[in-house]
Write a structure and sequence with these properties.
With 113 residues, the protein is α+β, with helices and mostly antiparallel strands. Helix content is 63%, strand content 12%. The protein has one domain: Winged helix-like DNA-binding domain superfamily/Winged helix DNA-binding domain (Arc Repressor Mutant, subunit A). It has helices at 6-15, 18-27, 34-38, 45-57, 80-112; strands at residues 32-33, 61-66, 69-74. A hairpin with a 2-residue loop joins strand 2 and strand 3 (69-74). The model has no long low-confidence stretch (mean pLDDT 93).
C-alpha cells in the first residue's frame, strides 16, 4: 500500500522542513553551489549540509564536486511519487465530497417536498 511506502515517507520527511523547501525552490532555478544555498538561510554551513544530506537521501537532489566546490541540482523525477500520492488523495476526497454533496442535495429535495 502506498500509504506505508518508506520512500514516500522519506520524501515527505524531506519536504516537511521549510529550510529544505526553500533550498528546493532555489534549486528549481538551476544548480547551485552549497555556499550559495547556505547564504539565504542564515544557517551555518554544517547545518545546511545536514539539510542537503536529507534531501539527497530522499533522492530530491544530486550533488557533485568540482575541485573544492560542491554543487547541488534538483532531481525533478524524484517528486513523481509525491505527485501520484497527492493525485490519488485528491481523487478520493473529491469523490467523497461529491457523494456528500449529492446526499445533502437529495436531503434538501426531500424536505422541500
Amino acid at each position: 500500500m502506498a500509504n506505508h511506502d518508506p520512500d514516500l515517507s522519506r520524501l515527505f520527511h524531506a519536504l516537511a522542513d521549510p529550510t529544505r523547501r526553500g533550498i528546493l525552490t532555489r534549486l528549481a532555478e538551476g544548480p547551485a553551489p552549497v555556499t550559495a544555498l547556505a547564504g539565504p538561510t542564515g544557517l551555518r554551513l554544517p547545518t545546511v549540509m545536514r539539510h542537503l544530506a536529507v534531501l539527497e537521501e530522499a533522492g530530491l537532489i544530486a550533488t557533485s564536486k568540482d575541485g573544492r566546490v560542491r554543487s547541488c541540482a534538483v532531481v525533478p523525477a524524484a517528486f513523481e511519487p509525491v505527485r501520484t500520492w497527492l493525485d490519488e488523495q485528491r481523487a478520493l476526497w473529491e469523490g467523497r465530497l461529491d457523494r456528500l454533496d449529492d446526499y445533502v442535495m437529495n436531503l434538501m429535495k426531500e424536505r422541500s417536498q
